[in-house]
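Title: Prediction job returns without error message
Component: structure pipeline
Severity: low
Priority: P3
Assignee: unassigned

Description:
Job completed but the reporter wants confirmation the result is attached to the right record. Sequence as submitted:
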Amino acid sequence: MSELGLAFLFLLAGFEIDPKNITGVEGRYGLATWAVTFGIAWLAVRFTPWFSVSHFDGIAVTLALTSTALGTLVPIMRERSLTGTRVGDSILAYGTWGELGPVLAMSVLLSARTGIQTLVILGLFAVVCVLLAAVPSRSRRVGSRFFSFVEERADTTSQTFVRLTVLILVTLVAFSAIFDLDIVLGSFAAGFVLRYIIPEGNHTLETKLDGLAYGFLIPVFFTVSGAKIDLTAVVSRPGLLAGFIVALLIIRAVPILISMGICPATRDVSAYGRITSLI
């Protein structure tokens, strides 16, 4: 149940993202900024005695210092009506790569498979995503019987749109599990696929998914996650936690702040707006 809550959390996060936000100018700056933060984090972990971790642990800490909890940020953005605003678009542009970058890097760098094998699996995963997006989207454009059937019964007890969404989600999450990829990757991709099928959005479907996810599944995920935190370990070394938070702010936030000042799309955003994007 907790894993399903995590899957829905990132499904909804992926559905919020307009592909133009990550492929446009600001998205390219977001990708470049993540690459820079990865390099800075690796140097910090490699040459700072304070970390003193092994090779694989060092990679894990490096990725943690470059990550963005976009799945947690999206509900907060919606509550504060930031979705669709300049600040909201900036958060999604930089936050998406802060979420996808570590997941993809983790699949390659921390996998027991060879790099070539991992890249082949990621390529197959991309093909599956394209097929899941293209077939329903084409069916909708040509007005096929299948999509007519789905739309006609979307608001009945059949709830066909919700079932189709869950089918896409379960398919991609199952693919991720079978090939030992992160569940976040499959869930995020399901959100992208759903956005491609319904580019203009669907308020009724979003309301139903919100009720199912935020009303039950996502709270279960956060409850279980909170219960797994080792409070004794946190309390025993509070300086380590404080130092990690400071390092995270310096390594992740400062490059984003500089990038937003350079990027043509965000150069005119006020200092308050940039700081809000960082927070």
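Comment from assignee: result matches the submitted record. The CA atoms of residues 89 and 140 lie 28 Å apart.
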